[in-house]
Amino acid sequence: MLEIRDLTKVYPGPVAALKGVSLSIGQGMFGLLGPNGAGKTTLMRIVARLLEPTAGTVLFNGEDIVADPRRIRRQLGYLPQDFGFYPHLSGEAMLRYLLVLKGVQAPQGLKRLAAELLDRVNLAYAAKRKVKGYSGGMKQRLGIAQALAGNPGLIIVDEPTAGLDPEERIRFYRLLAELAEDRTVLLSTHIVEDISVLCPRVAIMSDGRFVADTTPGEARDRLDGTIYQGAVAKEDLHEIERRYRITQAILIEGRNQVRVHLSPEEAGQGAVPEGFEPVSPTLEDAYLLLAQANGASGNGEGA
């Protein structure tokens, strides 16, 4: 169990990146969703003990990791958003180097452990290949391999699918789902699809605060009967944006398809735009409405 209690982080300025956030996370996959600048990366770095909080407590399995960072380091695997590799090294050599830096104990030798980890993330076939020849998805799996060293009870992954093509993203989804079967995996992202596919529970973050702690299904159900979609001519789009709460505006077959949120009362009073029809809500609708309602404008801190 990971417990975050009244966590605050204030940078010089002052800039409040975290504003007294609290959350309890059990075993399995847990999603942290929010726009860039919401404070997600600051939170991840504090939990990983790479950053000191201004105030608050973080407990893992009842142990205070703010007071004693050594306790979490023995139980933590971390894949940051920007993970650097030496491109001239092979995947195997790079992983062995990372294991040495982490101080991982390997009774049967680092070479054997590296081979086992590469096999676990389906990279054994590319062990001798230089990292510069790896695709984005292969590099992310190499990053997960180092995070798995020591069989940690908590794995943190920060924006893991950004920049991956659809095939690589699906492969990475399967790997993360497998890892979450017997440990806590904390997934931080601004990509709604990642949460929809992987996470039975999600906390939505905006401007340094949690604005929702829910499940994707509950978030969608709360909007049932309130989302309408219709085609909008380019010259009419500004007026729709001015009058309605828009959750999405995308081009489909060259036409603007717009989704708006209307309360039952508003819909009953005839406020539905002409030509719009009720549609099933999505997690993205819920996320964007919550972000809008809580002023998600970023705080200058990063993701």
What share of the residues lie within helices?
25-40%
What is the spatial order of strands in the main beta sheet? 6-7-8-3-9-10
What is the arithmetic mean of pLDDT? Answer: 88
What is the terminal-to-terminal distance? 24 Å
Characteristics of this structure?
303 residues; alpha/beta; four-stranded antiparallel beta sheet; 14 strands; 33% helix; globular; disordered C terminus
What is the compact description of this entry?
By secondary structure, the protein is an alpha/beta fold.
Describe what you observe in this structure.
It is a single chain. This protein is α/β, with parallel strands linked by helices. Helix content is 33%, strand content 28%. The protein contains eleven helices and 14 strands. The chain has helices spanning 40-47, 69-73, 91-102, 110-120, 136-148, 166-179, 192-198, 216-221, 237-243, 264-268, 283-293, and strands at 2-11, 15-25, 28-33, 55-60, 63-64, 76-79, 154-158, 184-189, 201-206, 209-214, 227-232, 245-252, 255-261, 277-278. A six-stranded mixed β-sheet has the order 6-7-8-3-9-10, with helices on both faces. It has a four-stranded antiparallel β-sheet with strand order 2-1-4-5. It is globular and about 70 Å long. It starts with a strand and ends in a 10-residue tail after the last helix. 38% of the residues are buried. Mean pLDDT is 88; it is low at 297-303.
